[in-house]
Amino acid sequence: MRALSLPYILLAIAPATLGAPGPGPRSAQQQQFHLAAQAVSAVSGSQAPLPDPPAQGHVQLLDSDGKHERYDGHQVWRLDWARLSTRVKDNILNAADSLGLDIWRASSTTFDVRVPPLSQSILRSLLPADLVSTYIPDVQALLDSAPVADDPLPGDGGDDDDVWNVTTLASPFHDGYHTLDQVYQFGEALVSHFNIVTSYDIGTTAEGRPIRAWSAKIDEEATPGIPEDGGDAHDENDKFEFIIQANQHAREWVSSSAAMYFLHSLVLDATADSTSHAAQLLRTFTFTVVAVVNPDGFTYSHEHSRLWRKNRQDVGGLLCKADSPGIDLNGNWGHKFVPSRLACSESYSGQTAFEAHETRAMADYLVNGSNPEAGRTLPIKAFIDLHSYGQLFMFPFAYSCADFPPDAENLMEAGLGVAKAMRMTTQGEGYQTGQACDLTYRSAGDAIDYSYAVADVRWSYSAELRDTGTYGFVLPPHLIRPTGEEVSAGLRYLATFIFDTEIDL
Ligand SMILES: [Zn+2]
To answer: How far, in Å, is the centroid of ligand 1 from the Cα of 361?
Structure first.
């Protein structure tokens, strides 16, 4: 490491990507580059000789505080690849992986990728011009235009200290993005102020942080469940769990914001009026929210690299640009898991399923509940995995479209209703519904495949929240509330649909 002139510090020229200088790694990576370049040039069918890799490797710039990674000149390109064959798409994906590029979104029709300045000209020369458009011309400029409020933890967080004003949905919590400590503090404020909310830790990360869950339910045996016609009373045998997890991917901040918004709005509505629909839902379902299932990565995305995706587990990978390359949690679940080759890759899914502390903890929770000794007593009806971005609401399977779930028709029907409920909110956006393999691209070892096929959760969905690429992961804070509204409306619709379809028979 060596310091350069302010305001930036050149931290490292890491050989993770394009042929870094130096004897050993250089030749191997040059080789890798040429393989990748060959794959990309297959898109255009060009016979031209392959260009040399850039002279330098990945340059990681830090802000003047020496902590935050900068993305000056980084661009997000969108490849319009609806017309490309699967083979060519695979080539491009593999090439992007080999080059250590950061894939933002891969669907069946579009491919968004962040390209650092050093790689731009060489990739331009390899890809047909009409295939590529520059979607975000300068990632750092976008980050600077929507600075994250770095507000300190207000108050001392004591029991009576409603620092977030949780008695109203107007709480300032929903107006900005927050650190892990602040998210946890907000969750504990819900526990303090609403006796229908409890919290517990479902596991611990590689760096020792707790993975916290908040559950809300109403125990009132004598009160009818959902039906507004005063239907049958429900006993413990008719109660179910509805689980929401978010922020598997560290940088997808709006996912945990929306999860907490959903929980908050549900609890507020239920406590304001015991006959409300929200209260009726809470008599049938225990809603459990694991808002930040990847606390280490989330913290790292706040404190160092805003665009960090994986967890922070040490998996070797000494040559990666980051000191601890981590595991992509949403490739590490134990159904149709595929081991990864490249530890530096943004989609590195680990060597074995559930190698990541976080996926292991969450899977244990799905199987055993909050009391592993007693085992799970509350059957799970729904498991929702929140991500951003792309505005999609998807059912299994993600790993392959050849595997069609027996419940597909019902899952599609409910999903269409969810999308409609989301769109019908005040500022609602359109969401696409379908099978995950169809709407996204590579997703082996996906959470919802595991929850559906192994944990036997029939209503398993994953959602890509706002937006469709204008801001991508850098969604401005003023869009947190509308996204939270959409998620709240969609999940309430789903819970009601499940109740009507298979509980209130
Ligand atoms: Zn994600």
So the answer is: 18
Q: Is 502 a catalytic residue?
A: no
DSSP string, 354-406: T-SHHHHHHHHHHHHTT-TTT---S-EEEEEEEEESS-EEEES-SS-TTS--T
Q: Quote the domain boundaries for residue 180.
A: 172-503
Q: Phi/psi of residue 368, each to 5°?
A: -105, -15
Flag whether 86 is in a domain.
Answer: yes
Q: What is the CATH number of the domain that holds 441?
A: 3.40.630.10
Amino acid at the residue 444: A
Alpha helices in 45-100 (DSSP H): 86-98
Do residues 95 and 22 share a domain? yes
Same domain, 101 and 206: no
159 in a structural domain = no
State the distance from the centre of ligand 1 to the C-alpha of 142, rounded, in angstroms: 20
Q: Which of the residues 241, 464, 485, 486 is marked catalytic? A: 464
What percent of the chain is helix, strand and coil (3-state, nearest 5)?
A: 35, 20, 45
Residue 207 belongs to some domain of the structure: yes
Neighbours of 28 (CB within 10 A): 12
Domains contained in the chain, number: 2
Question: Domain check: are 192 and 262 in the same one?
Answer: yes
Q: How far is the CA of 67 from the centre of ligand 1 (A)?
A: 24
pTM above 0.85, yes or no: yes
Listed in sequence order, the residues at least 6 apart from 490 whose beta carbon sits closer than 8 Å to its beta carbon are 393, 418, 419, 421, 422, 431, 463
How many other CB atoms are found less than 10 A from the CB of residue 493? Answer: 18
* Residues 180, 130 within the same domain: no
Q: How confident is the model at residue 21 (pLDDT cuts 50, 70, 90)?
A: very low
Structural domain includes residue 165:
no
Q: Do residue 87 and residue 202 come from a single domain?
A: no
- Token pair 């968004």 is found at 112
Residues 106 and 190 in one domain: no
Q: How far, in Å, from the CA of 387 to the mean position of ligand 1?
A: 4
Q: What is the pLDDT of residues 382-413, one digit of tens each?
A: 999 999 999 999 999 999 999 999 999 999 99
Distance in Å, CA 248 to ligand 1 centroid: 6
Q: Same domain for 405 and 287?
A: yes
State phi, psi for 59 to the nearest 5 degrees: -105, 120
Query: How much is the pLDDT for 504?
Result: 81
Tens of pLDDT, residues 62-111: 887 778 899 999 999 999 888 888 888 888 888 887 788 899 999 888 89
